């Protein structure tokens, strides 16, 4: 073990001792992000024991139905301990949102994303130390991509779906893989999911298997703009063996926090948009997204409802930090972000 890695492990252990106690399946709020509006589509993860939240979007003036303009951000915030204060630790290479976040032992990997005019191929690692961020470039994606899903399994990062351009009316039906031990070989293209190409799915890794759940396909509406087709199918993928359809998720869960937490062999889907209120009026009274927690057990190929969340947040990464699942910010309802940061300990049913 290197001196740097040992220091990181010791730091994490010390922080765990200070983490506020939580009952099983209990959720509690942490220090909110230092922005009154909050962000959706941020990158989030852990480096050197600190929680990082970077980039994302919000509407600083008016809501979208009032003519407001969505703005992309590049600020990186760090929280060194659960009861501490957020600090500005650095900036992303450029304003960015709606990519994939992967926490590794060596920092937070940020994949793809985009802004109002273009999606990106960028892949880079953020490392946090002594209050500052350093950035390491990694092999670029085969294509620009945002609104995709991703997860790390056995030292390889997998990315599936998404869109190549902000105005695309069809999703990418792709599965890419990057071996973190051999990054010089770049991304490999693997067999795509046999289901519909999609955006905003949720991915998980459990016992050597990838899981690709829900999301939305795209098609052009009568005006030629992208319209969602809500999906409730779910799939598994084992490297060198391929894809297999599994039991449909009981309800659609678009943009649920991803990667999905895995506890004792159960995969948890935290909320997500089911599309039921997509045309809700008046928009400013929208009640938010479903709060139901769903659990999938691969051994029995079954889904179960296992409680409710105290929050309604989508387009936010799920982060494992100090033995808990953390959701930092996100979209609380259409056009409205949240600075809230939540942590909970999930328990398998």
TrEMBL record:
Q: Repeat among the record's keywords?
A: yes
Q: Which UniProt keywords apply?
A: Kelch repeat, Repeat, Signal
Q: Which residues form the signal peptide?
A: 1-23
Q: What start-end ranges are recorded for coiled-coil regions in this protein?
A: none
Which Pfam families does this chain map to? NANM
SUPFAM superfamilies attached here?
Galactose oxidase, central domain
Question: What is the protein name given in its UniProt record?
Answer: N-acetylneuraminic acid mutarotase
According to its UniProt entry, this protein's organism is Prosthecobacter algae
